[in-house]
Amino acid sequence: MSITNTPTSNDACLSIVHSLMCHRQGGESESFAKRAIESLVKKLKEKKDELDSLITAITTNGAHPSKCVTIQRTLDGRLQVAGRKGFPHVVYARLWRWPDLHKNELKHVKYCQYAFDLKCDNVCVNPYHYERVVSPGIDLSGLTLSSSGPLLVKDEYDFDNQQSHSSSESHFQTIQHPPSRPCPQESFSTTALLPPAEGSGSASTSAFSSITAGPSNSTPNWTRNSSFPPTVPQHQNGHLQHHPPIPHTGHYWPVANEIAFQPPISNHPAPEYWCSIAYFEMDVQVGETFKVPSTCPIVTVDGYVDPSGGDRFCLGQLSNVHRTENIERARLHIGKGVQLECKGEGDVWVRCLSDHAVFVQSYYLDREAGRAPGDAVHKIYPSAYIKVFDLRQCHRQMQQQAATAQAAAAAQAAAVAGNIPGPGSVGGIAPAISLSAAAGIGVDDLRRLCILRMSFVKGWGPDYPRQSIKETPCWIEIHLHRALQLLDEVLHTMPIADPQPLD
Q: Would the pTM of this model clear 0.70, i.e. be above it?
């Protein structure tokens, strides 16, 4: 190491890591920061000029000009460290500059040749080659927020690693959705307020956020008991932008803030019940299915014993002769449980009221996280308020899947009949899609789009000893009736072959 105690690329990795650790901002645990820095230094050991640039940039806090510091771009663009995935430039910008940074707040400087957004084979992770800006498209001018601290947003990688994954190709994971820091109520209008309205690229939202979800054609949802602050435009980004919630004071925005009415997706009358909830212990349903009337847009599922129903489904009152000690112990921790809220025509939000996290299987959150449906489990922390279902997105998805399945079945039938079409004429299906797999999409596959599953207290997946939700001690399955109505309409509009007469 040099006389000034600032290392160079010729020094040992441990010396360089130790020096760079001294400049971290403290937003991450020491163990994660050390793993992330060690990983970067090892990748740069063969690129001494870039390693020197990194050391100069970090140890001088960007006071001296520095060159690009690059690592190879991965297939999905994300870097995995200690089983947690994040965009590399964001990971290191959080470590050394802004611990509360959100990925949409970074803009590269003009002289950066390998900035993440330039889509080069290599990605620059020099934190001083990026500037922090307010997320584009969000107008904060009409909002009154507390200045007591920064608005926290969800990291693009797990908050606390349960288990390190040895392979960067590990796809199934638990995605964390933490609560936000408390925010003084005085920072909001004293007029009665509605909970934060629909989030879009956001899977959860701040108290002012009102961004609808969907990769395209996102429009404000049909308002029934919700509305949108007109100062907040929409994101049309199908990728994850988790904004953990700021606690809010009431249930209604002032009527003056309502925006233009959005027509419903279907003219079919709304169902009598907006959802039905079945409670399970392991793989056994316990008690009757609980139906929630459309007149009760908010329902609480808790661990208490009130049998009167209405807007509360109390799991504590349900008996099971086969209940084990482990299940009984887990049930004791359900406590205040969760609150499910139907907004607009059929979007669903969850608030975790329990002192313990709940774990959710949500195709909407999967899509927002850029994952395949059913590819992740979402850990919802106590006090978090998050959108878990978007009706319009679900409707688009069921239409696409149904059309894909129909086209694949037709192409498969033609192939069986000997009329094999050309490679570019498979009913609009990309050749990479397996015809047999697409043709195998059935009603049950489409019906899963209309179902949410949620486990109390105990999680499942590769981070836990339980591989399936059916191995968790207490969980619920929520069938969303408006979505099922729309699926029925989609299935009815699908042309089917005329049945052959019986001989």
A: no
